[in-house]
What does this fold into?
Amino acid sequence: MAIASAPAKIILFGEHAVVYGIPALAAPVSALRAYAETIPNAEHGIRIDAPEIGASLPVGFDTETVDNALELTVRLVLREVGVTPPDIAVRLRSQIPIASGMGSGAAVSTALARSICAYLDVSLTDDMLNHMIFEVEKLHHGTPSGIDNTVVVYEKPVFFVRGQQPEVLRVGAPIKLLIGDTGHPSSTRDAVSGVRALYEAESQHVGGIFDTIREITLTVRHDIERGAIDRLGEQMTRNHALLRDLTVSSPQLDALVDAAMQAGALGAKLSGGGRGGIMIALVDDRGRSAVEQALRAAGAVNVTATEVT
Ligand code: PMV
It folds into this structure.
């Protein structure tokens, strides 16, 4: 038996703009994880079971192409390590809400790949795995920036620019956040194509929004590195307003952001693909429980505390 896991992620600044080459900052949420457990299969072949969503999937090797992310993950792993398909059953479970901006797809695929490698006693470097999960992300998202797989695989806060080697983000003082989940799943692929359509229709206006997001990300990077956390809040709220202009917020996300601010959060914004999913609120120890209560009262189905360090 071989068990492996991978964390959820949150984007702190720069989602959507990152698809267009603007820098973004993101961090793992190590307390929320996806797990995969590989055991011998009594029958011939490979089977993936996800009992939480009632799925059981045989992995086939007959076709050229594959449109299932889990199946693609298994095929890529076995090809990379040069092993003929073993008789195994992999059981998946995850604490990460699906389609909520927390990188659930990347985390499940990463845990799956690691568990199979551990079972087969072969090793895959994080660089190789990152490359592989990026290929899988293309099935989920169409044109992913690569930020999800990068944070999930390396499990470190990053300063990320599409197509460049990610830089580990030095965090001068802990960033205390509450993650509020609207409970509304949302397709990142749809949100990304919505932004693309807007960019094509209003390139100057949207280009201006991206430029402002770039300026925000570069400023906060510096503040985070020197531990000037109190300065982040205002920029988070600014980033949220720009994401709203990009049409990727939702009434539920706006309600959670407003509730957090009224309850004393230092800043708040949606995080990830948007149009549903999660938002994050910057809190200090004094204000934390009031903000948590306010988020729940405003409709958050889940509130998770996390620290970026
Ligand atoms: O919704 P998530 O967790 O997949 O995050 C998507 C982040 C985007 O910037 C919207 C897309 C991307 O590929 O970077």
Remarks:
- The longest helix spans residues 203-225.
- The mean pLDDT is 96.
- Residues 11, 15-16, 18-19, 101-103, 141, 144-145, 147-148, 188, 192, 272-273 surround PMV (CB under 6 Å).
- The CA atoms of residues 29 and 92 lie 19 Å apart.
